[in-house]
Amino acid sequence: MKLLKKSIAAIIIVTSLNAHGQDKALMTAFSQSYDYEAIQKYDAGLAALNAVYNASSYEINVRMGWLNYLAGKYKESVTYYQKAIALMPAATEPLWAIVNPLTKLDNWKEIEKTYLAILKLDPKNASANYSLASIYYYRKDYLNAKKYFDISLNLYPFGYNNMLMSAWTNYFLGNKNEAKTLFNKTLLYSPNDKSALEGLSLIK
Questions:
Q1: Of 39, 53, 104, 148, which is most buried, counting CB atoms within 10 Å of its CB?
Q2: Average pLDDT over residues 10-15
Q3: Does residue 3 belong to any structural domain of this protein?
Q4: Is there a single domain that holds both residue 79 and residue 103?
Q5: In degrees to the nearest 10, what's the CA dihedral of 102, 103, 106, 107?
Q6: Does any domain span residue 5?
Q7: Of the residues 103, 122, 141, the one at which a domain ends
Q8: How many other CB atoms sit within 10 Å of the CB of residue 60?
Q9: Contact 84, 94 (CB under 8 A)
């Protein structure tokens, strides 16, 4: 029994030492990646992290996603952010992050899906509602644009972009009274605003 206890104790000590060594290596790799990022040596930063890469680490995948984005490796960036999203499905952090490389790749379908995923987790997020509404607006899908602009506008009623974009959306939907009201409110925020004045000039 004493021999068994000694064996168990030895295993615990070895395991603890290995874990400590791994933690130290991870800390060093992250620290190096920040140092390399500061001097724009992104590939070197990625190499430092690759040396300790663990596919099940949320933190490493997020960091790799960011460094690949900075290095202009947008597809690789998306891949790492997707891994982070899968590891932490309740987090909005990697969803916001993946928008950056997706934008560089001009992948608006995936960006739309990403904003919808954010809103599923955080329905009252003003930025996500506004950004999604903008996608629909520029597609001339004004009904869907209004749906999301309305939420953003209700959260920030005197926000310049919310008022102006909501005004134009209502104008294109034929809601002239609502559009006029919002264009006038925009002018309270931004007197002599060219876009708001143009909108008012079109309403008879």
A1: 148
A2: 37
A3: no
A4: yes
A5: 40
A6: no
A7: 122
A8: 23
A9: yes
Residue 108 · residue 131 · CB < 8 Å? no
- My answer on whether 92 and 25 are in the same domain is yes
User: Is residue 20 domain-shared with residue 106, that is, in the same domain?
Assistant: yes
- CA distance between the termini of the chain: 95
Nearest to 114 by CA among 97, 126, 130: 97
Closest CA to 31 of 54, 49, 18, 43: 49
The residue range of the domain holding 96 is: 12-122
pLDDT tens for each residue of 128-158: 999 999 999 999 999 999 999 999 999 999 9
Question: What interhelical angle do 194-202 and 176-189 show, nearest 10?
Answer: 160
187 shares a domain with 162:
yes
Structure tokens at 103: 């934008």
For 70-84, how does the pLDDT look when each residue is reduced to its tens digit (9 = 90+)? 999 999 999 999 999
Contacts of 43 (CB under 8 A, 6+ apart): 71
Taking the CA atoms of 51, 68, 134 and 194 in sequence, report the sign of the dihedral they define.
Answer: positive
**What's 35's domain CATH number?**
1.25.40.10
